[in-house]
Design goal:
heterodimer, A: mainly alpha, 4 strands, globular, B: mainly alpha
């Protein structure tokens, strides 16, 4: 009989070399920028000038350079927190793609608290209450999907996807319905328009010279450290990785898998909700589409970073630079859209996903009799 | 115009006209999911098919060229998904979402980049004629139903034909049955000599191509006018993913599902007109918030999803290996 084995077969690698991974990332970014440069050139835009503006984000030479940094932080903080939170769920192989919905629910309940209590509570307390309300609101929304998954095995990917849109239209209902009971809206305006939060509900900022440090950045960085410790040095964090690797092993070891899933997803969704709350108090006003796609981009970031906490910090920074940079740079070019960042982001991830294969597997040549073994 | 029967007929007519892209997206996604892949890139795939199909259709002044190019370019998105998830074992959720991000990025990049050079649909007689009503002889004369079902454009009939054809393919052909085996249990299918790689590649490309046709339809339905802020697809790709579940992975049920989802989708536009035409019976429609109509497809799907997992009933069409990559060495 003829040997019909393919020429190569694929074998899992036992070793993992961080150097090889780093190389993959650098290659991905460089290649994506190269692809982008070709596309820009086709549109008649000088790629180097565009990239220079994109990577410097219009900060040098600006009349208010600190304002740009503050806006950058407003984009960076939600993305960082959401990516960290999603990584918790993904570590357990729970495909929470409901970040958008949990973020919206967090934003909604934070806004609810701000409109109801903003006049009463003083500033730092109010921001804290908003964060708590957001965390509980987002957490319960995530817990709903987790409970169904644990109890009935409902497909969590598809369910959280549906919940995203239900949350979105729920929020839009409050954004677009002009009625006496709707305390979210500005009573002065004839058209439905969100009212500004009372002063107490605005994010706390610490002035450092001309720069106002948004306190949510400090909170996000602290979360980074806390989650790193939680995952690597606590029993609960260890349980997450065991359940992720093999629920059966976890069960055999006497872990209550269902409870671990519920606890972790609540934590994950609560952090996302809290990011929504921070985002609302930084903006100072509600929005009908508050997420800026952070629930989707967070998945990209978490995956780029291989769910590694420090990696997430770096990846979130990279993606925010791309997005914020494209926003500022594209203002100067009518032919280029801020969505150009999404294109670059897509190419980067495609290359990383493909390169992953070569860091996880290797090709072995089949030869002669060895194949029959 | 305010004649109640006219309003009702127009409402029903639009349910079909506006929502057929959902059918294309759903049938495409069913083909993909039956091979065991959960492709969350429907929105991006449709956007790519829409953009390039429309531009090619305008350039060639031909409906057929538009259809072909939208099928091929969307099929390329499927090929990309196949290379990454089937050959390179990448995570399907992440790959699908990236295709959506990338596809929408490409859509806006091309559209914005054309700027003044954007071709108007009125400049292409073939597209305008191809998308205008094609009245089926005799049948179109039937009151109400004649207008609603038999005076639509050719692409509506094509969509329904594809749905029926795919249903027949999945249930009554040898390759179709093998495809389902690949989605249910790739290891078993592999052991009886089914070429898993080939089946996954072909069906990812073909399914994505069908989604692309839906995108092309949306481009024509929007009269080819490009807006910098809103994509033509406008969330239809996500609704299609929901519809696959609602239709229980059955392309013929997907036709019905399209009409049900389409009913709510169109009701939000027509609720005012309907309430005006039938003040006695439908006056309450004015009180229903439009956002509820928008959310209903997703609410219904969530309920279907939960209910079917609670009942764990036999005969669920969800492929058992949906979303799982097949790695031969771990068989």
């Amino acid at each position: 009989m003829k040997n019909r084995q393919p020429l190569f077969h694929v074998v899992k690698r036992e070793d993992s070399r961080p150097g090889r991974q780093l190389l993959a990332y650098v290659t991905a970014v460089v290649l994506a920028l190269a692809v982008g440069a070709v596309l820009l050139a086709v549109q008649g835009v000088e790629p180097l000038t565009f990239y220079k503006q994109m990577l410097t984000m219009g900060i040098p030479g600006s009349r208010y350079p600190w304002r740009a940094v503050e806006n950058f932080i407003k984009l960076f903080v939600p993305l960082l927190i959401v990516s960290l939170a999603l990584a918790l769920a993904f570590k357990m192989r729970f495909w929470n793609i409901g970040g958008e919905g949990q973020f919206i629910m967090g934003a909604f309940w934070a806004g609810f608290a701000a409109m109801k209590l903003g006049e009463i509570l003083p500033k730092p307390a109010m921001v804290l209450v908003m964060a708590l309300c957001g965390a509980v609101g987002g957490g319960i929304y995530g817990l709903f999907a987790a409970a169904l998954k644990v109890r009935f095995g409902t497909n969590e990917t598809l369910l959280t996807l549906m919940l995203n849109y239900i949350a979105l239209y729920f929020l839009q209902f409050f954004a677009e319905t002009k009625a006496p009971w709707n305390f979210f809206l500005d009573p002065e305006s004839a058209r439905p328009k969100f009212a500004k939060f009372p002063a107490g509900a605005q994010m706390v900022t610490v002035p450092i010279g001309p720069f106002n440090l948004n306190l949510s950045l400090v909170a996000a960085l602290a979360l980074c450290v806390l989650i790193f410790v939680y995952l690597n040095y606590t029993k609960r964090g260890y349980e997450i990785s065991v359940v992720g690797d093999s629920p059966n092993t976890a069960r055999y070891a006497g872990m209550r898998v269902g409870r671990i899933v519920l606890r972790t997803i609540f934590l994950s969704a609560a952090l996302i909700g809290m990011a929504g709350a921070f985002h609302m108090s930084s903006a100072g006003v509600m929005s009908a589409s508050p997420t800026n796609d952070v629930g989707w981009t967070g998945i990209v970031v978490a995956w780029l970073a291989k769910l590694n906490t420090l990696g997430i910090l770096a990846a979130a920074l990279l993606i925010t630079v791309l997005q914020f940079g494209c926003q500022t740079a594209s203002a100067a070019y009518p032919a280029i859209d801020a969505n150009f960042a999404n294109l670059l982001q897509g190419v980067i991830l495609f290359i990383v996903l493909a390169a992953d294969f070569f860091t996880r597997f290797r090709l072995v040549r089949r030869a002669g009799k060895e194949a029959v073994k | 115009m305010n004649d109640p029967i006219n309003v009702l007929t127009l409402f029903l007519f639009n349910i079909v006209l506006i929502n057929i892209p959902l059918l294309y997206g759903t049938v495409g996604e069913i083909v993909v999911e039956k091979s065991g892949s959960l492709d969350l890139g429907v929105e991006g795939t449709m956007a790519v098919g829409a953009m390039f199909g429309y531009l090619a259709g305008c350039a060639a002044n031909s409906l057929a060229v538009g259809l072909l190019v939208s099928f091929l370019t969307a099929g390329l998105c499927g090929l990309l998904f196949a290379v990454l998830t089937v050959s390179f074992q990448a995570n399907q959720n992440v790959t699908g979402l990236t295709i959506t991000t990338f596809g929408l990025g490409l859509y806006f990049f091309v559209g914005k980049g054309l700027g003044e050079r954007w071709p108007a649909m009125t400049g292409s007689a073939a597209l305008v004629n191809g998308f205008s009503a094609f009245e089926l002889p005799l049948l179109s004369k039937v009151p109400v139903a004649g207008k609603v079902f038999f005076s639509q454009n050719i692409l509506v009939y094509l969509g329904i034909a594809i749905a029926v054809l795919v249903w027949w393919y999945l249930n009554h052909t040898k390759t179709g049955l093998r495809l389902r085996a690949v989605g249910e249990n790739p290891g078993a299918a592999d052991s009886v000599g089914v070429n898993i790689l080939l089946y996954k590649y072909v069906h990812l490309i073909a399914g994505s191509g069908i989604m692309g046709l839906g995108g092309f339809y949306m481009a024509l339905n929007m009269s080819g006018s490009f807006e910098g802020s809103n994509c033509w697809i406008n969330g239809y790709g996500w609704i299609a993913i929901a519809l696959v579940i609602f239709a229980n992975w059955n392309p013929v049920l997907a036709i019905l599902g399209t009409l049900v989802f389409g009913f709510f989708n169109t009701l939000q536009i027509y609720s005012g007109a309907l309430a005006g035409a039938f003040p006695g019976g439908l006056g309450w429609l004015n009180a229903v918030p439009a956002q509820l109509f928008k959310a209903l497809p997703f609410i219904i799907t969530a309920i279907v999803l939960i209910a079917s997992s609670v009942r764990k009933r036999e005969g669920s069409g969800q492929p058992a290996a949906l979303g799982l990559n097949y790695f031969r060495e771990e068989r």
